[in-house]
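Look at one record.

>
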Amino acid sequence: MTPTRAGSRRLAPSSVATAFLDHLAVERGAAVNTLVSYRRDLDRYLAFLAGQGIDSIIDIDGAGIDAFLSRLRQGDSDHPPLSASSAARAVVAVRGLHRFALREGLVEVDVAHEVRPPTPARRLPKAISVDDVERLIDAAGIDGTPLALRDRALLEILYGTGARISEAVGLAVDDIDLAARTVLLRGKGGKQRIVPLGRYAGEAIEAYLVRVRPALAAHGRGTPSLLLNARGGPLSRQSAWTVLRATADKAGLRVAISPHTLRHSFATHLLEGGADVRVVQELLGHSSVTTTQIYTLVTVDQLREVYVAAHPRARRGSR
């Protein structure tokens, strides 16, 4: 509920923050994790304002928000310094709060409008080689048990479609079209996309559906979920993580493996194979091509390594 505008000139920042979080939850339908993150960041902001003796939303100015950002980066007696990415997330919450206050007529100016969050260092996605992907997937079905066939289907989905772990475990049986070789993925913000299903992934899913899922489902209460646990319920994200880690150990892979590793590898291998970055954007479900373009940095680095190693005039001292 929005705070009453009457007398809002002395409205406490905490009241505005409560209304803002209610707005995100009720009107914007924000996810629980998003709300928890915003609440944590805003609680720290409110504590900072209280420490500065600011008890009204109209007493906050841009310099104060800049000071809060500096405090985030430097830390204090109660909090360690935040990384650039964590500080940027906190500033996004603060900017959202002040934008909300302006929109609701609680202030006349958005004092956070010009405040820019720190730019996180660009980290290249971690991808593994095609050979390592094949070793990983082969290791999933090595013991031939029913759950091993399920695990292989999970890994084939992650690498074959570039799905996020939440998208993979959220699949329903009806989301798979084996005849058309496509899968319907439900991404962030409820966005849906149809992704082609490769032959290996299709065969792994079909084997699981025919030979394994009916027996697993018999232990449960009936669920449309594609991937089931041993009790017949939907496979959880945590269980999928456990499957991936255990399979990586079986495969003898010495690099850190996560579900996102397979998503990164999916994108990187497509680009290395000549796929257009905008096609990869659609397959990954990225809202902006800028997000996808970070994968091109991986392939450029690999090209540079090959160039330096192979070109006769690429190294200092070449004649």
About this structure: The chain is about 55% helix and 5% strand. The mean pLDDT is 85.
